[in-house]
Each structure stands twice: as C-alpha cells, then as structure tokens.
Amino acid sequence: MSPSNFESHKSIIRNKVWSQLHNVALPDSRFHHDYSSFIADFVGSSRANDFLASLPTYQNAEVLFIAPDNCIQELRFRALKDGKTVLVTTYGIRRGFWLLDPLVISGEKWEIASMLDGMEKHGRHVTLEEISSSLKRIDLMITGTGAINCQGLRFGKGHGFFDLEWAMLYTIGVVDASTRTIAVVHECQVLDEKLVGEEWDTGCDFIVTNKRVIEVAGTSRAN
To answer: Which controlled-vocabulary keywords does the entry list (predicted)?
Structure first.
C-alpha cells in the first residue's frame, strides 16, 4: 500500500469509528465532538479503568506515564490514590512534561491535579534531563486513542503524540522495548482491520475497553 493510500485508509477508519463514537462519547468543553482535536471520554470509561487497575502490570507499577486524554483522567486520579507517581504531558506536548507525586501533592488536591487544568498548578514541570535523573524507569505507559485494531496498532487523531512521547522517553533511557503499553478505548473503537504500521508507530500490549481486556502478543515498538 502506497503512503498516500495508507493515510487515506487510516482516515477512512477514523471517520468510521468517529461516527459510532458520537453515540457514546462525552463532549469536550473546548472541542465538543471534534474527535480530530481530542481523545474523548466515553460512557463506560470507569469500567474500563477498573479493568485496567486489576491488571498485575498496573498493580506492580510504581511510575506511570498517563497521557492527557479525557478518557483516562479518572485513571490519573486513581493512580495517585494508589500511591503511584504519574508523569503526564500537557495537551499536544505544548508545555512539556509534568510530574504528579502523591507524596508531594496533598490528598485533597489529587483529583484536581489529575485534570489538565489542575496539573500545572499542583504538579511539577520536569525536563527530560530531570525525568532521566529522578525517575530512572517508567514502568507503564497508558494512552487513549481514536481507534485501535486487535494487533495493537493505534489510529489516533493523526498527530502522533503518543509515538513522540514514547520516542522522547526512549531516547533518555526511561522506557525500552520491555515497557508495557496500554490503550483505553470504548468497545466500538476496537477494529478487526489489519494494517502494517509505520516504523515510528508504538503498538499497545493491552487494549482495555468497557467490556474486556485484550492482550496483544508481539507488539511493535518505535525506537
């Protein structure tokens, strides 16, 4: 498949999923139902996050990267309540990485800190150098996405933010090919489409929906 046809096919897939997502997605205060601008929260995301929190890979993790997506805001809050350190980016990585440490942020502020409007007030801005020196290792990376197939290949908004976040953290040595990755989506966002990913695509080891957990074998990693 040529690059132009590949991108066209991915666009068709996104639009097909977005038409179904409109029935279960929660509108964003800034972008309403413009799924090309944000990753939506959805009916059933709490159940999906419960499934995720039951996984040993989450329970054993001490430091998590959790993307700034609407569907996993509740998970960021939960992780802080579970005593885990959370690394998150600002939306679009515009203002870099922020560290949410439950030992530093008081408990009554954890929920606000887990939100995009609150993390910059209660979290700590960290450079890549500071991440490398202070965290040493990120145990788990979690993201939302526009759609994903059963082989763990994501079809996001088309901006590649999670791939870039992975690449940045890989470059400084805090993640590697053994670092587990999880996508949280509504069941309608899981596809049977089979596509060959591009070299920078970062696949997911687990797909967690409001109905089930799918474990993926042989997931590709951008590096």
So the answer is: Transferase
Domain regions of the chain by residue span = 3-215
The alpha carbon dihedral of 127, 129, 135, 137 has a sign of positive
Q: Is 3.40.50.10420 the CATH classification of the domain at 3-215?
A: yes
DSSP β-bridge partners for residue 98: 88, 125
Contact (Cβ atoms closer than 8 angstroms) between residue 143 and residue 182? yes
Label the pairing between strands 85-89 and 97-100.
antiparallel
Q: What is the pLDDT of residues 148-196, one digit of tens each?
A: 999 898 876 656 789 899 999 999 999 998 999 999 999 999 998 776 5
Sheet holding 206-208, edge to edge: 124-126, 97-100, 85-89, 63-66, 140-144, 180-184, 206-208, 213-215
> pLDDT for 204-223, tens place per residue?
999 999 999 999 987 755 54
